[in-house]
Structure to design on (372 residues):
């Protein structure tokens, strides 16, 4: 193991708080400092196949973005697929999973200056198999930085709650980062958050301002992620979605409520809705609620007349099997994840983190990887 190898464990107060965004930006900032940095997601819940082996999707993202040389087993030593927890509880899985994580940490530290460890979900996720984020951070001897999102009461409450579980496991809580802070609307938030967290002896290590591009994907990401049948690609697949609206009402009410640059999830047989919304582009007016496109649910293919209307309006349209709720849930999942092909989004993340966080202060809380 290289002398001086240090580590930081990046945790969060829940899903979709911006932990992976922060990880990506910090990793880039560390690399820019000339630090030989490794990344590891010790326990993953959302996994894909990578080089013939299961790997957490965030580990796969980091490998692709930074061209990491490490094997899948080191980047993502433990995954929790469907049915895994039941098998652990029933005694079918007896392997020492913690030992697998420690072995990956030891290998990763060789020749490295720093290991960036990323948790999954809140501090207690994984407790059912004895590998909560708090357990893993304690096992690895890593200090924790907790990521939450904008507001005052909720982020402080969530950070304090999660910090308590880490502290109960003997883990050093080095501080917190608050993501998606709307500085234009509430410029005083950083000071309030710092004072509020200081009451609980938790340093605020920085805030990340809200950026729409980081919260919403492009139409191209929706098309790739949904893997449906594209009826029409539209004029700009790089257009950023303003919001997702579910059209579950009469056309005139949909037209009033969808919002600008919306991706509309609507059953494919609701031709009345499709005709009215396409008309917002075809009538030559400047309606504020014109959609970017449609995800048609139910597997219902509109009539050829409506399809031609959507093409004439040049609106992105993809056809999906599944009920509207299921399809809308798939779209939502795509909204909050970063994908390797999100070139603009990744560039924005790198710049935002480097420009908003005090990287030296964050590096100062890193601790040595324990000798084994």
């Amino acid at each position: 193991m290289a002398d001086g190898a240090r580590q930081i464990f990046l945790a969060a107060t829940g899903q979709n708080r911006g932990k992976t965004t922060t990880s990506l930006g910090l990793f880039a900032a560390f690399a820019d400092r000339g630090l030989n940095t490794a990344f590891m997601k010790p326990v993953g819940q959302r996994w894909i196949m990578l080089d013939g082996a299961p790997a957490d999707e965030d580990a796969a993202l980091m490998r692709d973005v930074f061209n990491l040389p490490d094997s899948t087993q080191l980047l993502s030593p433990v995954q929790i697929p469907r049915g895994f927890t039941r098998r652990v509880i029933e005694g079918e899985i007896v392997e020492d999973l913690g030992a697998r994580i420690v072995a990956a940490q030891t290998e990763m530290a060789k020749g490295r200056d720093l290991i960036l460890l990323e948790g999954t979900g809140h501090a207690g996720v994984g407790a059912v198999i004895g590998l909560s984020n708090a357990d893993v951070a304690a096992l690895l001897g890593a200090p924790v930085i907790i990521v939450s999102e904008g507001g005052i009461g909720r982020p402080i409450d969530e950070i304090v709650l999660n910090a308590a579980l880490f502290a109960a496991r003997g883990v050093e809580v080095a501080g917190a980062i608050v993501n998606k802070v709307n500085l234009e609307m509430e410029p005083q938030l950083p000071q309030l958050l710092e004072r509020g967290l200081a009451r609980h002896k938790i340093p605020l290590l920085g805030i990340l301002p809200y950026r729409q591009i980081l919260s919403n994907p492009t139409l191209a990401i929706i098309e790739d992620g949904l893997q449906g049948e594209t009826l029409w690609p539209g004029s700009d697949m790089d257009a950023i979605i303003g919001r997702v609206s579910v059209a579950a009402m009469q056309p005139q009410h949909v037209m009033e409520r969808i919002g600008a640059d919306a991706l509309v999830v609507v059953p494919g047989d609701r031709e009345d809705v499709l005709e009215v919304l396409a008309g917002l582009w075809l009538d030559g007016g400047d309606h504020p609620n014109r959609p970017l496109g449609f995800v048609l649910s139910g597997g219902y293919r509109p009539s050829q007349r409506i399809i031609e209307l959507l093409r004439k309006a040049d609106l992105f349209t993809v056809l999906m099997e599944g009920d509207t709720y299921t399809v809308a849930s798939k779209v939502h999942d795509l909204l909050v994840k970063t994908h390797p092909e999100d070139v603009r989004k990744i560039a924005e993340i790198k710049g935002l983190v480097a420009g908003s966080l005090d990287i030296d202060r964050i590096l100062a809380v890193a601790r040595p990887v324990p000798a084994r």
About this structure: Residues 153-168 form the longest helix (16 residues).
